[in-house]
Design brief:
311 residues, alpha+beta, six-stranded antiparallel beta sheet, 6 strands
Length: 311
């Protein structure tokens, strides 16, 4: 029964990320503030009868900017470029295509194409294009100025609100560029990947992936740290082998076992890499095992983790 539930959950795309209640409420409050501002702006420029037309697409943007502020779809260029390109295509479709059904379908399809080529995919842009066609009366009266007010004004407003609001919470600073420094702090010894590796992987996938490389590096680092929480068994310690403490940044160290006293269960080691390099030092097997997180070896000039034999 449990396996069936897991299969159905995977098929349905059931959200698996354990987000705290604190984070959920922060996202909700940010969405409330942004949409309140957008509603006031739209009502001022479009009037009481038509102001609601742009609210759905801005509501979708609010979900991205406040629930997933570091996602590629949420960044400034996708937000602004995606909405503007879609609005331009929507206005053009509304003015040139008399059949509204064809105009709506054309606006959305061409917006997807435009966002792909201009590298600004933003799902709410599809809603912006569609709603722009639906707002026939407003579009015909405002023409292409509809793109500036209210579309651009609304987009810039939600962008500024997202920057200011998320700046109060250092772990979710927006845009993602402002959070790169914090992510890089978890990277060490270039164990993960560089920018070229990330781009090459995306080319092989050949489909849009909604995660930036800085968060992906951070995820790898955190997975590595989590996996290293368990200590080694002292019986795994071998003469001549190399071991790491698995710590991030400057705390990362490598020790080689150079001798041992079997009767006293003592390990004599040399610190190869780390801030406490020593000629040689002595610990009990238990003490050394408590320090070491995993065995490593040097492959092609890089330290690589070796799989543990016993658990």
């Amino acid at each position: 029964m449990k396996n069936l539930f897991n299969i159905l959950s995977d098929f349905a795309g059931w959200e698996q990320q354990p987000v705290s209640h604190h984070e959920k409420f922060i996202s909700a409050i940010g969405g409330f503030i942004s949409i309140l501002a957008i509603t006031i702006i739209s009502r001022y420029f479009l009037g009481q009868d038509a102001f609601w037309l742009l609210i759905p697409s801005m509501g979708a943007s609010a979900v991205l900017l406040f629930a997933v502020p570091h996602g590629p779809l949420s960044q400034p260029w996708p937000l602004i470029g995606g909405n503007l390109i879609s609005a331009i295509i929507g206005v053009t479709s509304a003015l040139l295509i008399s059949d509204q059904v064809i105009a709506i379908a054309s606006a959305v399809g061409l917006s997807i194409l435009g966002m792909y080529y201009f590298k600004c995919i933003h799902p709410p842009g599809g809603a912006t294009a569609m709603i722009t066609v639906l707002a026939t009366k407003s579009v015909h009266s405002l023409g292409y100025s509809f793109i500036m007010t209210p579309v651009l004004l609304n987009t810039l407003s939600i962008f500024i609100i997202a920057m200011l609001f998320n700046s109060f919470f250092k772990w979710r600073r927006y845009p993602a560029f402002l959070n790169q420094k914090r992510n890089v702090e978890l990277d060490y010894q270039e164990h993960f990947f560089n920018h070229e590796d990330f781009i090459n992987a995306l080319k092989k996938i050949d489909s849009f992936v909604d995660i930036n490389e800085y968060d992906l590096k951070r995820i790898f680092a955190l997975i590595n740290l989590s996996a290293n929480l368990s200590r080694m068994n002292k019986n795994e310690i071998k003469l001549g082998s190399y071991y790491s403490n698995g710590e991030p940044g400057s705390e990362w160290a490598v020790r080689q076992v150079i001798d041992e006293d079997v009767k006293k269960e003592l390990i004599i080691f040399k610190e190869i890499t780390g801030k406490d390099k020593t000629a040689s030092e002595c610990l009990t097997k238990t003490q050394f095992a408590n320090w070491a997180k995993y065995e490593i070896s040097k492959e092609n000039g890089q330290w690589e983790r070796k799989p543990s034999i016993t658990k």
